């Protein structure tokens, strides 16, 4: 039975004239564009970026920053620029239509349209194209050459084969097993060298070496591993093998001509337990040497060299790190399917839940344990073991220890999502472990040069550092005068820290944040804290901007660029700080949002940055380093000026308990306060910091698009919600309902045309609110928890973790177990208020939702259905918590807007809403058309 609609006046409509802007519609999505893969050349002369529609063929744009010239290459992606700013390289994808047509024609993978390599010369502005390229690589910090791999050569035509003399032996085919041609191209000279049947290749960071593995062609190149020198353009066979030998994980040192790789000499592809071997080569050596195998690896007796860990050289090249692992567990392949027992034993003392073990099974199969080889001394040392769940290199591997952590003693506490771990330093001299911190509740990191281990301790709500040389733990902050953790946190759990920027030169000071300011802390027995900014009095937040992507330590002798955010009016911008004097100078600020970082060329004094607002896409701008001259350099969506858009403003009201609150109010273009508008309400905790966020029109993954609704004549209200522990549902009511009433009181909201929508946590609150009030004409709840009592003991299937922490400590905010606080679980569950629901409800809950089990949606749907309430549930088969497939996102956008337009704007009822969609028509008919009268 459908909810009856009262006869009433039509809602306010936008004026239409010959020059009126168009409202956004579902057809605009595909051609709305985004800027991706942003790069500025090291010399600062060119900005190279991808510009792609949401669906269709994009382009790579090359913008001259010293002028206004702009070139583009259609369908480019995967941009790389060489270190000397000479050329940009990228792949050109085939036309999307050609690919789709080929797939519809059921063509084989090898017969689908191929990529093309484009090499754009930044000096001559000419582009060279090389067809049928599958991948390419160039050095990060040197060289004017690149290497690329070609796809299989086209098979000769049948008539050509017939005329040709029959060969004595069929030629070796290029395929995934045999490999493909690898070409080395010197871009400056155009000189090329080609090597056949290459399976894997790698380039050194300094651009002096290339290594590759070939299965050989029995004539000009043997099977094995090769190194190619960029200095003299010669190749050297460093390890010879048979054609069926496998060589993987080719790894070159950064700059001194060393190579490590994994070899598998077993030619029987059906062997289940492989015996990988680690080989090492250094410039000047004739052949690679066997370093470790199943008989000589440094781990536990019987362990193997890991085939899943890519060998890694330390920054100085003096150490080679690799992995070892136990012999894998393999299945008995002689058993028939009906002889195999598949059973899970859920043991009460399992370290990890069976569901968690299932999620991590593939990762666990590939788990390896860190080991070390020192080329000079030829020592092999095992560093990691099965008691250490994680190991991290220190100072890029140059330190004489690594950092190790273990959560095994605490992993059985499945109900607590806060990490707990023991922290160790592991000696590279003998593999011995030194305990740094037992049961650390937080995440530990290591300073860039390895002088300090540091962490934020959750129970102490404080930063700590461990002086490695002195073996001393230092509490850096105390919260007596300054709080370095979230002051506004309203969860029944420890608040999160505001974060840090990094360490200064020589690991002398750590730069941390409070709510507003930047602080330097010098670790000592009595730590020295120095506030570098003065943001708190102005309610202005300052944060360090990293300009050099290779920066490891922050330089105190240079001025810093800081981003700024005004908490009161939400303005953002940039300031310059002299860290020595504490002087901060405002450079640039306005009613916009920054957020894509700042690009700065290595050898030019200019910044590239974005700014956006609700009306303005985050286009890119270029400026001098004082922001005196700012110029827009991209115009991504010029078509937007053809469409109605709207505006946004901050609004204020008091919650039911008197708490001052803020929200966002989006208004249609040419808003007339004398008219009555339908209003949509959307919310998810706090959103007011998004005042200047741009929302491009796009299909819906999970939540409504504010731009679309404003463009189509809706007012959209987005209130902030604050919570009282134990009462999340009541808290939502306390904040949201007075906010909605405050907008009605302004006179331009049609109180009988108000809709509400929320997803996940917002979906739960929507389901709760419709059981508490009849204020809304229609509601949509995405993936809602309907019954906290049944959801409490469930599983988050994407992670395999129990949901208990969700309610006890995190977002659901009950603050206790089900048996400690049963009344709160019941009182906050929408299911128990189902008889009171008078609002039509649309739900979207998918059967592969890994965050909120879709049985929660079913519980609520079945309750409302039995009570004869108007309820619909959309289940996109195989989709997760939010939609991922574009066709489903488009479909949901259409249905959601049809639903609200019907109830709030008297639009025609779509067939699916009035009559449903029979199962036998699923995937065939969508029933989106209006119902026949």
TrEMBL record:
Single annotated GO MF: serine-type endopeptidase activity
Record-linked InterPro entries: 6-blade_b-propeller_TolB-like, AB_hydrolase_fold, Peptidase_S9_cat
Chain intervals for the UniProt region annotation (Disordered): 1-21
Ranges of residues in domain Peptidase S9 prolyl oligopeptidase catalytic: 731-906
Matches recorded under Gene3D superfamilies: alpha/beta hydrolase, TolB, C-terminal domain
The organism's place on the tree of life at top rank: Bacteria
GO BP annotations, alphabetical order: proteolysis
UniProt keyword list: Hydrolase
PANTHER family in alphabetical order: ACYLAMINO-ACID-RELEASING ENZYME, SERINE PEPTIDASE S9 FAMILY MEMBER
Name this polypeptide is given: S9 family peptidase
Organism annotation: Dyadobacter luteus
